[in-house]
């Protein structure tokens, strides 16, 4: 029995390694994507809210941002992945994609400096200091991006940094489909 106890750590390691390599294989074959997290908001309206604009603190509500197709991007200065994603968001904005953002659980002055230094791809930034809007959206972390149609319905959610590959695979086809149905960016 004592000898069996000596091999127990090895058995645990082998078991954990098998689980790890099994998940890695599923990720590589496309059977599992860790960013495919379900959202209760898909095909439901964007939640009602009143949040201050980062720029000047004026209250903004849902009716002021809906009316055309847009991306709703959740970010923060403390988020390293948001720094990686930012140049791609600038590119999308330059191509005419409307992006509204939520500065999530952040410091307002740090966020203003960040946008001044790196460029501001957003048509509007909401300041969600306490995370209440993020909670209503079901945000699990930054960055997250929601595709919202002209009627204010959430059509897609992606957790992680946007980049060209993700855009081409996940967002561009959905936007093309929404445009064919009459929602224009």
TrEMBL record:
It is found in: Cell inner membrane. SUPFAM superfamilies: Thioredoxin-like (SSF52833). It is a single-pass membrane protein. InterPro entries: Periplasmic_diS_OxRdtase_DsbE (IPR004799), Redoxin (IPR013740), Thioredoxin-like_sf (IPR036249), Thioredoxin_CS (IPR017937), Thioredoxin_domain (IPR013766), Thioredoxin_ResA/DsbE_sf (IPR050553). Residues 40-180 form the Thioredoxin domain. The keyword Nucleotidyltransferase does not apply. Keywords: Cytochrome c-type biogenesis, Disulfide bond, Redox-active center. The keyword Nuclease does not apply. PROSITE patterns: THIOREDOXIN_1 (PS00194), THIOREDOXIN_2 (PS51352). PANTHER family: THIOL:DISULFIDE INTERCHANGE PROTEIN DSBE (PTHR42852). Belongs to the thioredoxin family. DsbE subfamily. NCBIfam families: dsbE (TIGR00385). This is DsbE family thiol:disulfide interchange protein.
